[in-house]
Amino acid sequence: MINYCFRSLILVALLSSVFCAQTNDRSPQVTTVTTVLISPLETKSAATGQEFWLRTTNDIVVNGEMILPKGSKVRGHIAETVARAEGHPQSELWLIIDKAVNKAGVEISLQAIVAAIAAPNKDSLSSDPTYGMLHSVEPTMRGTGARSASSSGTLAASSKADSNAAVATATLKPMPKESTLQEDSQGVIGYEGLSIRWNFLVPPPITILTTDKKNLKLASGTEMLLRMTPPRLPQ
Questions:
Q1: H-helix or E-strand containing 9?
Q2: What is d(CA 161, CA 134) in angstroms, rounded to the nearest whole number?
Q3: The dihedral formed by the CA atoms of 151, 220, 178 and 181, expressed in degrees to the nearest 10
Q4: I need a surface site. Which of 101, 117, 178, 188 has the fewest CB within 10 A?
């Protein structure tokens, strides 16, 4: 149990900047990357174990070595889905980031959370014809055809915590509508009623998205900022 607790604290320190900053010069580094959701996700049709894919929009360089160039793919899966119903006042998607695949086809394991989410706008990749062609060759996803969440306003993240899990809750940092997510962004922008929190009790870390709406939907082109321990190329 002590070992589990220790590993949980390490993950919290590495992946969530909402905790107190560490002053030790030897504190572990954290890497961030911005990504775009390829296909929509929603609680109405999502299933446990379902895969989803992201595409990176900037490079990841660690200690001068190119690990993941812009345009690499990131795979995740749904750990759990909760639909709003009697006894469940909210809809939830529990997301785990699994790995990245660079342009050479090399797979790289990741330990990451989704630190921030921004709804797509009219100038986002989701409205780009070239992006549409890239989307068409991605693995087929379930989860289309439901009413999307509205994109009016910005919201702070929920402070709800699971009673049996170590959970951190994001605070929202304001960002201009026309901007993409920044390295220090946290929380949710552009999805009304959507909040984000994390479960670090047992690795891998889980990102939990919650809304009081009947259907939680993320549109294709949704931006996601990933915060992770620095990835390494396999030996």
A1: helix 2-15
A2: 38
A3: 100
A4: 178
